[in-house]
Amino acid sequence: AELLVLNGPNLNLLGAREPQHYGRTTLAEINDRLARQAQAAGHRATFFQSNAEHELVERVQQAAAAGVAFIIINPAAFTHTSVALRDALAATGIPFIEVHLSNVHAREPFRRHSYFSDLAAGVISGLGAQGYELALAAVIEKLKTQDP
Ligand code: DQA
Questions:
Q1: CA angle centred on 31, ends 26 and 33, rounded to 5°
Q2: Is the pTM of the predicted complex or chain greater than 0.95?
Q3: I need a labelling partner for 102 at 20 to 30 A (CA). Which of 13, 24, 89, 126 fits?
Q4: 2-146, CATH topology level
Q5: Distance between CA atoms of 69 and 82, rounded to whole angstroms?
Q6: Catalytic residues (predicted)?
Q7: ipTM greater than 0.90
Q8: Please, which residues have CB within 8 angstroms of residue 135's CB and are 6 or more apart in sequence?
Q9: Inter-CA distances, 144 with 41, 42, 59, 96, 99, Å
Q10: Is 143 annotated as a binding residue?
């Protein structure tokens, strides 16, 4: 199946950005692992990162037309602010898993609220870069039971 991995603002800086929160792994390294993990399971993952809310909204809208079966998304700071990105995901109806590298519940109080979690198939927070791989493993399992 077709899978989409979305990353929000400042995640292009992974590796160098506040490593005490986000680790030393770059987004390119994360995406490379996910691409191989998806391919090994017979799926195809595409990747998109943007610092711009409207670009993420448009990418989600396109995902429906592109027949994307599952989305893995780290909305980054938009987690706590973006009704628009939430609405885009709700509009497509494509199931998604929300991933955060850091444990958002162990940080500033404003990070505890997510505009996405109640719509998400699941949420992974605090497991670093491995969180994306765990999300993809879950997606792969879900797609097995969904396939006819
Ligand atoms: C984040 C957590 C957010 O609160 C923050 O704004 C980010 C990254 C994470 O992956 O831990 O940019 O989504």
A1: 100
A2: yes
A3: 89
A4: Rossmann fold (3.40.50)
A5: 23
A6: 22, 100
A7: yes
A8: 72, 97, 99, 122, 124
A9: 10, 11, 25, 16, 21
A10: no
Token digits for 116? 């996405």
Ligand 1 binding site (Cβ under 6 Å of any ligand atom): 10, 74, 76-77, 79, 100-102, 104, 111
- Name the residue among 130, 39, 127, 119 with its Cα closest to residue 71: 119
Check the annotation: does 102 bind a ligand: yes
Residue 115, φ and ψ in degrees, nearest 5: -80, 0
43 is annotated as an active-site residue: no
Compute, in degrees rounded to 10, the torsion defined by CA atoms 95, 98, 99, 104.
Answer: -170
Residues 125, 117: contact at Cβ < 8 Å?
no
Instruction: Note down pLDDT in tens along the chain; length 148 residues.
Output: 999 999 999 999 999 999 999 999 999 999 999 999 999 999 999 999 999 999 999 999 999 999 999 999 999 999 999 999 999 999 999 999 999 999 999 999 999 999 999 999 999 999 999 999 999 999 999 999 875 4
Judge whether 22 counts as a catalytic residue. Answer: yes
Domain assignments of the chain as residue spans, ordered by start = 2-146
